[in-house]
Write a structure and sequence with these properties.
Elements: H1 11-19, H2 22-36, E1 41-51, H3 80-92, E2 97-102, H4 112-123, E3 128-132, H5 138-147, E4 151-153, H6 160-163, H7 172-184, E5 188-190, E6 193-195, H8 201-212, E7 220-225, H9 242-255, E8 260-263, H10 272-280, E9 285-287, H11 300-310, E10 313-314, H12 321-333, H13 336-341
Parallel strand pairs: 1-2, 1-9, 1-10, 2-3, 3-4, 4-5, 6-7, 7-8, 8-9
The structure holds S-adenosylmethionine, 6-(5-methyl-2-OXO-imidazolidin-4-yl)-hexanoic acid and iron/sulfur cluster.
């Protein structure tokens, strides 16, 4: 295994990686990981749900779909200044990237001024910005890029073959089109999926094959373990074998050696040993803070204790002077008056 970046993986190669003995797979993943990254650093992102619940889509895993009774309280789009306060708190507790998520099929025209102000305000704090707002058209992607958005998260979730069992309201191709629009606008891509939805190993291989054969690998690859939420169609899904989750992380690391692989949702149900194995398999990013979007995540100090026990340091995000100057200029445009007036009230 040379460690070169490849975009021509075959299904047989990916399935062979999954079939290896666990120790061989982990050794290979960790060896490659060390060619591209400091193995003792983990990137830290914090999530913020800027618009919660009442989503028209039918994603079978999701507590925010309006179609399932999950007892979730719906919330309107957050005010811009509140989002910036949350970002400041996330920065103070050590996050370098702030990821804003909305339970939308796609943003509407009237939403765009608010979300672009959020990007400008968070960027001005010197943090990396990420958003996940559903499908984007070409123009929306360009507007977000112009506002300074660094990353856009849009997951493929699973293999093309299993996808129709999980979501019927948007197609796999819709997702690929959004990802193409994000790339064309010049943003970094955050794209991954969920393990533990009842898929076969061949579906995990199918998802990773899609990601690894993109013309450019996603810079960030979130691997979520299904959070089984009462009221969703997947609430009673059988528990996943933890080693199958770790295998998926390891194969992602081998296929996309220069990408950050994020140990994403599901950490609340993982013990410290499992998380340590995920880091050994090549995961080098986490969501940090006691809430994901709507479900619990380990408390920040518990994560810091784990980092300390494992000798892991949070990866720093160097803000270069020119970048800082640019963001300060952006902040000047987001005047106090604008922030105060941007109190968005329409339910969307
Ligand atoms: N509405 C937007 C969309 O779907 O594109 C953005 C937010 S959505 C909550 C972002 C991602 O969170 C989904 O694509 C899915 O991978 C992940 N997710 C949602 N619910 C989850 C759950 N119960 N367990 C694990 N991952 C989940
Ligand atoms: C991703 O892949 N996982 C995050 C983020 N991208 C937006 C979301 C996880 C959501 C878990 C369920 C919830 O908290 O609502
Ligand atoms: Fe809506 Fe996103 Fe949840 Fe699907 S995953 S129901 S699009 S919030």
């Amino acid at each position: 295994m040379s460690g070169a970046i490849r975009n021509d993986w075959t299904r047989a190669e990916v399935e062979a990686l999954f079939s290896q003995p666990f120790n061989d797979l982990l050794f290979q993943a960790q060896t490659l990981h060390r060619q591209y990254f400091n193995p003792n650093e983990v990137q830290v992102s914090t999530l913020c749900s800027i618009k919660t619940g009442a989503c028209p889509e039918d994603c079978a895993y999701c507590p925010q779909s309006a179609r399932y009774d999950t007892g979730l309280e719906r919330e309107k789009l957050m005010a811009v200044d509140k989002v910036i306060e949350e970002a400041k708190a996330a920065k103070a507790s050590g996050a370098t990237r702030f990821c804003m998520g909305a339970a939308w099929r796609s943003p509407k025209g009237k939403d765009m001024p608010y979300v672009t102000h959020m990007v400008k305000g968070v960027k001005a704090l010197g943090m990396e910005t990420c958003m996940t707002l559903g499908m984007l058209d070409v123009e929306q992607a360009q507007d977000l890029k112009a506002a300074g958005l660094d990353y856009y998260n849009h997951n493929l979730d699973t293999s093309p073959e299993f996808y129709g069992d999980i979501i019927t309201t948007r197609t796999y191709q819709d997702r690929l089109t959004t990802l193409a629009n994000v790339r064309a606008a010049g943003m970094k891509v955050c794209c991954g999926g969920i393990v533990g939805m009842g898929e076969e190993e061949s579906d995990r291989a199918g998802l990773l094959l899609q990601l690894a054969n993109m013309a450019e690998h996603p810079e960030s690859v979130p691997i979520n373990m299904l959070v089984r939420v009462e009221g969703t169609p997947l609430a009673d899904q059988a528990e996943l074998d933890p080693f199958d989750f770790i295998r998926t992380v390891a194969v992602a690391r081998i296929l996309m050696p220069a990408s950050h692989v994020r140990l994403s949702a599901g950490r609340e149900e993982m013990n410290d040993q499992m998380q340590a194995l995920a880091f050994l398999a090549g995961a080098n990013s986490i969501f940090y803070g006691e809430k994901l979007l709507t479900t619990p995540n380990p408390e920040a100090n518990k994560d810091m204790q784990l980092f300390q026990r494992l000798g892991i340091k949070p990866e720093s995000h160097e803000v270069h002077e020119t970048e800082q100057e640019q963001t300060e200029a952006l902040l000047e445009k987001v005047t106090e008056a604008q922030l105060d007036s941007v109190f968005y009230n329409a339910a969307s």
